[in-house]
Amino acid sequence: MSSSRILLVIGGGVAAYKSLDLIRRLKERGHSVRAILTPAAAEFVTPLSVATLTGERAFQNLFDLTDEHDVGHIRLARDADLVIVAPATADLLAKMANGLANDLASTALLATTAPVLAAPAMNPTMWAHAATRRNVARLKADGVAFVGPATGLMAERGESGLGRMSEPLEIVAAAEGLLGGGSKPLAGRRVLVTSGPTHEPIDPVRVLANRSSGRQGHAIAAAAARAGADVTLVSGPVAIADPAGVAVVRVETARQMLAAVEAALPADVAVFAAAVADWRVAEDASQKIKKGAGGPPLLALVENPDILATVARGANRPTLVVGFAAETENVVENAKAKLVRKAADFIVANDVSPAGGVMGGDDNTVHVVGPAGVESWPAMSKAAVAEALVARIAEVLGGAS
């Protein structure tokens, strides 16, 4: 999309360090960024760091004689196409909701006529407090848009819950949505995504399954749709909402998933994020298997079809095939072997050991394995992983075309 002028208000919270990456991400997309730091924000990130990344001075003081000779707070507010408040602390949200204007940040927010996007960040108890809930409700009624907060570990030792600031790429996606739909690098492309677990019946009551929540696959489908793609999501049984703007095909078993995938082809891109069961019982019972004196039944297992390899080696192969490797040991080494064995273009590998909390959780740490080597990404939310992966897919497709 064309360059937009963004005013970033950085609040005084630990999550202010993410604002530096947010500036970089916005600038990467061609947007110009000016930043206001609250006095508390300057305790977490330096004005020099902010100025270096924005390419402009960092604004701090309402009574700066240099800026205020031409009513600088009004100029900052009026020159912006969008105002982002990140982190939006409880204090900043309270000021915004009640129209207070006792520093440069709150004054500019009161003076702007541009859309405002708030990315809350605070302790879960503060987020749940009745006063904060009232302020958020008032701001939403006033037209302020929100992104997050997310669930995860807090700065306080041992605490976790709802209150983490959204990742920079999530904020960028929300910002570009407000600015007019955002960049559409996958416009005109067909993208196929698989997500969630498969359930392989043992009898009418019991199944072979796994702990996949579908959060990562669904996030990828949503990110691809935001990037302009025509997206089909083939999903196993999950307890999360369908992504907006995506055609969803629901299946239960691996064989059903393969049939749905083949029916959705041709596609430009196929991303196989589903945790497909490797085996199923040779013959599932038509009635519930009862306990008996003979002990537990013996289950004869047979292999399920390999969906990734079938599509990657098939006649109707998409231009780009991306697989996932959920591992508990030797993560990168196993992913490298899988890349060759499955004939994929990329393998996104992650450690799903129980201690990591990836299966069913909101965060992920991935290694992208491709023909050029391994790229290890930092820990981030699954939504941020999805945005970064879709950006990489668009980059590869652009180079291929």
TrEMBL record:
Q: Which Pfam families match?
A: DFP (PF04127), Flavoprotein (PF02441)
Q: Where is the signal peptide?
A: none
Q: How is the cofactor bound?
A: Binds 1 FMN per subunit.
What cofactor does this protein call for?
FMN; Mg(2+)
Biological process according to GO: coenzyme A biosynthetic process; pantothenate catabolic process
Q: Which reaction does it catalyse?
A: (R)-4'-phosphopantothenate + L-cysteine + CTP = N-[(R)-4-phosphopantothenoyl]-L-cysteine + CMP + diphosphate + H(+); N-[(R)-4-phosphopantothenoyl]-L-cysteine + H(+) = (R)-4'-phosphopantetheine + CO2
UniProt keywords (A-Z) are: ATP-binding, Decarboxylase, Flavoprotein, FMN, Ligase, Lyase, Magnesium, Metal-binding, Multifunctional enzyme, Nucleotide-binding
The record lists CTP as bound by D278, K288, P305, D306, I307, L308, F324, K338, K342
Any one GO CC term of the record: phosphopantothenoylcysteine decarboxylase complex
Pathway per the UniProt entry: Cofactor biosynthesis; coenzyme A biosynthesis; CoA from (R)-pantothenate: step 2/5; Cofactor biosynthesis; coenzyme A biosynthesis; CoA from (R)-pantothenate: step 3/5
Q: What does this protein do?
A: Catalyzes two steps in the biosynthesis of coenzyme A. In the first step cysteine is conjugated to 4'-phosphopantothenate to form 4-phosphopantothenoylcysteine, in the latter compound is decarboxylated to form 4'-phosphopantotheine.
Name used for this protein in its record? Coenzyme A biosynthesis bifunctional protein CoaBC
Its source organism is Hansschlegelia plantiphila
Please name the taxonomic classification of the source. Answer: Bacteria, Pseudomonadati, Pseudomonadota, Alphaproteobacteria, Hyphomicrobiales
